[in-house]
């Protein structure tokens, strides 16, 4: 997957997504000592906004173009960007159980393998960590139901799942 329309990314749809993210980001208890993984960071606006509240943020996106835009427009001393697929972030030994918080905003609907991506993303959390996943489910209630079911039944994280619709 390579999202090549990075120039069109900041249109009206992106403004709506950003608004939703900003409404919900405070559900995470961001602390100055936290390390955060932003899976599907796009051009890095939210990545950089979290950076002012935490120790460090690692933004990853499958698109080389998005990562390039993020580096150019939303860098900070405690932010790093990397090209990486959401379905494989948990395979990186440096990231496995390496983050206090993990966020994933409006990304999972791009993958036919949402369960694989969720498993990989959750593998990056330290024990006791928090994840905030926001999905676009207006077109596919089945995907939302399947992902919610997976999260609630996850042996490590299921007890902590809260679904806000």
Automatic annotation (TrEMBL):
<dbReference type="Pfam" id="PF13649">
    <property type="entry name" value="Methyltransf_25"/>
</dbReference>
<dbReference type="InterPro" id="IPR029063">
    <property type="entry name" value="SAM-dependent_MTases_sf"/>
</dbReference>
<dbReference type="InterPro" id="IPR041698">
    <property type="entry name" value="Methyltransf_25"/>
</dbReference>
<dbReference type="GO" id="GO:0008168">
    <property type="term" value="F:methyltransferase activity"/>
</dbReference>
<keyword id="KW-0489">Methyltransferase</keyword>
<protein>
    <recommendedName>
        <fullName>Methyltransferase domain-containing protein</fullName>
    </recommendedName>
</protein>
<dbReference type="GO" id="GO:0032259">
    <property type="term" value="P:methylation"/>
</dbReference>
<feature type="domain" description="Methyltransferase">
    <location>
        <begin position="36"/>
        <end position="129"/>
    </location>
</feature>
<keyword id="KW-0808">Transferase</keyword>
């Amino acid at each position: 997957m390579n999202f090549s329309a990075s120039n069109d990314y900041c249109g009206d749809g992106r403004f709506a997504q950003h608004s939703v993210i900003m409404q919900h980001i405070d559900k995470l208890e961001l602390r100055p000592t936290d390390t955060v993984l932003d899976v599907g960071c796009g051009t890095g606006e939210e990545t950089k906004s979290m950076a002012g509240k935490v120790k460090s943020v690692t933004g990853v996106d499958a698109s080389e173009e998005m990562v390039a835009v993020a580096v150019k427009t939303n860098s900070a001393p405690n932010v790093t960007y990397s090209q990486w697929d959401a379905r494989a972030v948990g395979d990186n030994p440096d990231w496995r159980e390496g983050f206090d918080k993990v966020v994933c905003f409006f990304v999972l609907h791009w993958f036919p393998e949402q369960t694989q991506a969720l498993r990989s993303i959750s593998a990056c959390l330290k024990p006791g960590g928090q994840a905030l996943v926001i999905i676009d489910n207006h077109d596919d209630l089945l995907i939302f139901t399947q992902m919610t079911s997976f999260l609630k039944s996850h042996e490590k994280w299921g007890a902590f799942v809260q679904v806000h619709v």
